[in-house]
Amino acid sequence: MAGLDRVRVEIEYCVACRWMLRASWIAQELLTTFEAELDEVALVPARASGVFIVREGGAVVFDRAREGGFPELSELKRRLRDRIAPGRSLGHSDRSATRPAGRSGEADR
């Protein structure tokens, strides 16, 4: 993509909480999954305590403070996919979101 159409993800993380490794792991996973769609994933150190926010194009995709914990990677990938490549399959990450509780094929008793 060129010019204004660049897809940039920011992961803002709390420096004091030492969440850089978590942020960099998530960045690696996103770059691997969306290698054709993403132009950049930026790690943004936050001075405010407890911050862990993932943004795409300035819009919040995930906010730890709002959602009460860290994102499940598969859920984060689905949210990002829905923004940047809505028709794209995520393979097993998609299946785990739509699989009903219990074993497949068994009726509830």
Mean of all residue-level pLDDT scores: 86
Count of discrete alpha- or pi-helical segments spanning 4 or more residues: 4
Number of strands: 4
Tell me the CATH topology. Answer: Glutaredoxin
**Proper CATH architecture:** 3-Layer(aba) Sandwich
CATH superfamily: Glutaredoxin
Order of helices and strands: EHEEEHHH
User: How are the strands ordered across the major sheet?
Assistant: 2-1-3-4
| Percent range for β-strand residues | 15-25%
Low-pLDDT parts are 99-109
Query: How many structural domains in the coordinates?
Result: 1
Largest sheet: 4 strands, mixed
- Taken from the alpha-carbon principal axes, the silhouette is globular
Ends distance: 52 Å
Tell me the helix content.
25-40%
Structural class: alpha+beta
Radius of gyration: 16 Å
What is the CATH first-level class name?
Answer: Alpha Beta
